[in-house]
Description:
The chain is an alpha/beta fold. The chain has one domain (2-198): Phosphoglycerate mutase-like (Rossmann fold). 40% of the residues lie in helices and 18% in strands. A 6-stranded mixed beta sheet has the order 3-2-4-1-5-6. α2 packs across α3 (57-70), α4 packs across α5 and α6 crosses α7. It comes from Dactylosporangium darangshiense. It holds the Pfam family His_Phos_1. This is Histidine phosphatase family protein.
Amino acid sequence: MTLLILWRHGxxxxxxxxxxxxxxxxxxxxxxxxxxxxxxxRLAALNPTVLVASNLNRASTxxxxxxxxxxxxxxxxxxxxxxxxxxxEGHTHAEVTERWPESFARWRxxxxxxxxxxxxxxxxxxxxxxxxxxxxAAAGPDAVIVAATHGAAARFxxxxxxxxxMSLAPSLGALHNCHATHLRHDAVRGWTLEAHNAA
Length: 199
Protein backbone atom coordinates (compact mmCIF):
# COMPACT_ATOMS: atom_id res chain seq x y z
CA MET A 1 0.00 0.00 0.00
CA THR A 2 1.07 3.55 -0.68
CA LEU A 3 1.51 5.95 2.23
CA LEU A 4 0.88 9.61 1.43
CA ILE A 5 1.97 12.14 4.03
CA LEU A 6 0.62 15.67 3.68
CA TRP A 7 3.12 17.71 5.70
CA ARG A 8 2.29 21.30 6.53
CA HIS A 9 5.14 23.81 6.37
CA GLY A 10 6.77 25.31 9.43
CA UNK A 11 5.59 28.51 11.07
CA UNK A 12 5.95 31.91 9.44
CA UNK A 13 5.77 35.34 11.01
CA UNK A 14 2.37 35.72 9.36
CA UNK A 15 1.14 32.51 10.99
CA UNK A 16 2.18 33.85 14.38
CA UNK A 17 0.38 37.15 13.72
CA UNK A 18 -2.79 35.42 12.40
CA UNK A 19 -2.21 37.12 9.07
CA UNK A 20 -3.72 35.41 6.02
CA UNK A 21 -1.03 34.19 3.65
CA UNK A 22 -2.71 32.30 0.84
CA UNK A 23 -0.30 32.33 -2.08
CA UNK A 24 1.78 35.26 -0.82
CA UNK A 25 5.32 33.89 -0.76
CA UNK A 26 6.30 34.35 2.88
CA UNK A 27 9.42 32.69 4.34
CA UNK A 28 9.67 30.53 7.42
CA UNK A 29 10.39 32.29 10.68
CA UNK A 30 13.24 31.13 12.93
CA UNK A 31 10.66 29.07 14.78
CA UNK A 32 9.49 27.53 11.50
CA UNK A 33 13.01 26.60 10.45
CA UNK A 34 13.51 24.92 13.83
CA UNK A 35 10.19 23.07 13.50
CA UNK A 36 11.16 21.73 10.07
CA UNK A 37 14.57 20.58 11.27
CA UNK A 38 13.05 18.87 14.31
CA UNK A 39 10.29 17.05 12.42
CA UNK A 40 12.36 16.02 9.38
CA UNK A 41 14.20 13.13 11.11
CA ARG A 42 10.90 11.65 12.29
CA LEU A 43 9.62 11.65 8.71
CA ALA A 44 12.91 10.29 7.45
CA ALA A 45 12.45 7.34 9.82
CA LEU A 46 9.38 6.36 7.77
CA ASN A 47 11.72 5.78 4.80
CA PRO A 48 10.09 8.13 2.29
CA THR A 49 10.70 7.31 -1.36
CA VAL A 50 9.25 10.46 -2.95
CA LEU A 51 9.38 14.09 -1.83
CA VAL A 52 7.24 16.74 -3.50
CA ALA A 53 6.47 20.27 -2.40
CA SER A 54 4.54 23.40 -3.14
CA ASN A 55 6.83 25.90 -4.83
CA LEU A 56 6.07 28.57 -2.25
CA ASN A 57 9.11 29.36 -0.11
CA ARG A 58 7.67 28.24 3.21
CA ALA A 59 6.88 24.77 1.83
CA SER A 60 10.04 24.36 -0.25
CA THR A 61 12.22 25.34 2.73
CA UNK A 62 10.37 22.83 4.89
CA UNK A 63 10.91 20.15 2.24
CA UNK A 64 14.61 21.02 2.14
CA UNK A 65 14.94 20.01 5.79
CA UNK A 66 13.69 16.52 4.92
CA UNK A 67 15.83 16.37 1.78
CA UNK A 68 18.90 17.06 3.92
CA UNK A 69 18.35 14.05 6.19
CA UNK A 70 16.74 11.65 3.69
CA UNK A 71 18.85 12.20 0.58
CA UNK A 72 15.72 12.71 -1.52
CA UNK A 73 15.57 15.46 -4.14
CA UNK A 74 12.26 17.32 -3.93
CA UNK A 75 10.11 18.02 -6.96
CA UNK A 76 8.05 21.22 -6.93
CA UNK A 77 4.47 21.55 -8.09
CA UNK A 78 2.51 24.83 -8.01
CA UNK A 79 -0.71 22.82 -7.73
CA UNK A 80 0.31 22.05 -4.13
CA UNK A 81 0.15 25.74 -3.20
CA UNK A 82 -2.15 27.08 -0.52
CA UNK A 83 -5.65 28.26 -1.33
CA UNK A 84 -5.54 31.70 -2.89
CA UNK A 85 -7.17 34.25 -0.59
CA UNK A 86 -7.25 37.18 -2.99
CA UNK A 87 -7.75 40.55 -1.33
CA UNK A 88 -7.56 39.01 2.13
CA GLU A 89 -3.88 38.13 1.82
CA GLY A 90 -1.69 40.21 4.09
CA HIS A 91 -4.57 41.09 6.41
CA THR A 92 -5.07 39.79 9.93
CA HIS A 93 -8.23 37.92 10.86
CA ALA A 94 -9.42 40.99 12.75
CA GLU A 95 -8.90 43.21 9.68
CA VAL A 96 -10.76 40.79 7.41
CA THR A 97 -13.60 40.57 9.93
CA GLU A 98 -13.89 44.35 9.87
CA ARG A 99 -13.78 44.77 6.08
CA TRP A 100 -15.57 41.59 4.92
CA PRO A 101 -17.68 40.50 7.93
CA GLU A 102 -20.21 38.34 6.09
CA SER A 103 -17.65 36.68 3.85
CA PHE A 104 -15.32 35.97 6.76
CA ALA A 105 -18.18 34.44 8.73
CA ARG A 106 -18.89 32.13 5.79
CA TRP A 107 -15.22 31.17 5.62
CA ARG A 108 -15.17 30.37 9.34
CA UNK A 109 -18.14 28.04 8.80
CA UNK A 110 -16.33 26.28 5.96
CA UNK A 111 -18.63 27.71 3.30
CA UNK A 112 -17.71 29.23 -0.05
CA UNK A 113 -16.71 32.88 0.14
CA UNK A 114 -17.63 34.08 -3.37
CA UNK A 115 -15.98 37.42 -2.67
CA UNK A 116 -12.64 39.24 -2.58
CA UNK A 117 -11.03 36.93 -5.15
CA UNK A 118 -10.84 33.98 -2.74
CA UNK A 119 -10.21 30.71 -4.61
CA UNK A 120 -13.15 28.30 -4.66
CA UNK A 121 -12.89 25.23 -2.47
CA UNK A 122 -13.62 22.89 -5.36
CA UNK A 123 -10.82 24.43 -7.42
CA UNK A 124 -8.31 23.91 -4.59
CA UNK A 125 -9.41 20.31 -4.09
CA UNK A 126 -9.25 19.48 -7.80
CA UNK A 127 -5.74 20.83 -8.37
CA UNK A 128 -4.42 19.20 -5.20
CA UNK A 129 -5.97 15.83 -6.00
CA UNK A 130 -4.71 15.92 -9.60
CA UNK A 131 -1.15 16.57 -8.42
CA UNK A 132 -1.25 13.95 -5.68
CA UNK A 133 -2.81 11.26 -7.87
CA UNK A 134 -0.15 11.84 -10.52
CA UNK A 135 2.61 11.46 -7.95
CA UNK A 136 0.99 8.36 -6.47
CA ALA A 137 0.58 6.70 -9.86
CA ALA A 138 4.17 7.44 -10.84
CA ALA A 139 5.60 6.28 -7.51
CA GLY A 140 4.23 2.76 -7.80
CA PRO A 141 3.07 0.36 -5.08
CA ASP A 142 4.44 0.55 -1.55
CA ALA A 143 5.76 4.07 -2.04
CA VAL A 144 6.04 6.48 0.88
CA ILE A 145 5.29 9.95 -0.47
CA VAL A 146 5.81 13.16 1.49
CA ALA A 147 4.10 16.26 0.11
CA ALA A 148 5.19 19.49 1.81
CA THR A 149 2.17 21.72 1.42
CA HIS A 150 -0.23 24.02 3.29
CA GLY A 151 -3.00 23.77 5.85
CA ALA A 152 -6.18 24.53 3.92
CA ALA A 153 -4.92 22.85 0.76
CA ALA A 154 -4.08 19.67 2.71
CA ARG A 155 -7.50 19.66 4.38
CA PHE A 156 -9.43 19.93 1.12
CA UNK A 157 -7.19 17.31 -0.52
CA UNK A 158 -7.77 14.91 2.36
CA UNK A 159 -11.54 15.27 2.20
CA UNK A 160 -11.57 14.90 -1.59
CA UNK A 161 -9.29 11.84 -1.64
CA UNK A 162 -11.41 10.12 1.00
CA UNK A 163 -14.55 10.80 -1.02
CA UNK A 164 -16.21 12.71 1.81
CA UNK A 165 -18.62 15.55 1.01
CA MET A 166 -16.75 18.84 1.20
CA SER A 167 -19.26 20.01 3.83
CA LEU A 168 -17.34 17.79 6.28
CA ALA A 169 -14.07 19.66 5.76
CA PRO A 170 -14.57 21.90 8.83
CA SER A 171 -14.83 18.79 11.03
CA LEU A 172 -11.23 17.90 10.15
CA GLY A 173 -9.16 19.87 12.62
CA ALA A 174 -6.73 22.51 11.38
CA LEU A 175 -3.33 21.05 10.52
CA HIS A 176 -0.65 22.52 12.78
CA ASN A 177 2.70 23.76 11.51
CA CYS A 178 5.02 20.85 10.66
CA HIS A 179 2.30 18.32 11.51
CA ALA A 180 0.96 15.87 8.97
CA THR A 181 -2.01 13.91 7.71
CA HIS A 182 -1.26 10.28 6.77
CA LEU A 183 -3.35 8.59 4.08
CA ARG A 184 -3.04 4.99 2.85
CA HIS A 185 -4.03 3.81 -0.60
CA ASP A 186 -4.57 0.34 -1.98
CA ALA A 187 -6.24 -0.91 -5.13
CA VAL A 188 -9.17 -2.49 -3.27
CA ARG A 189 -10.10 0.00 -0.54
CA GLY A 190 -8.89 3.20 -2.15
CA TRP A 191 -7.83 5.96 0.25
CA THR A 192 -8.12 5.61 4.02
CA LEU A 193 -7.19 8.03 6.80
CA GLU A 194 -4.44 6.69 9.02
CA ALA A 195 -3.53 9.74 11.11
CA HIS A 196 -4.23 13.46 11.34
CA ASN A 197 -2.10 16.14 12.98
CA ALA A 198 0.69 13.63 13.50
CA ALA A 199 3.73 15.35 14.97
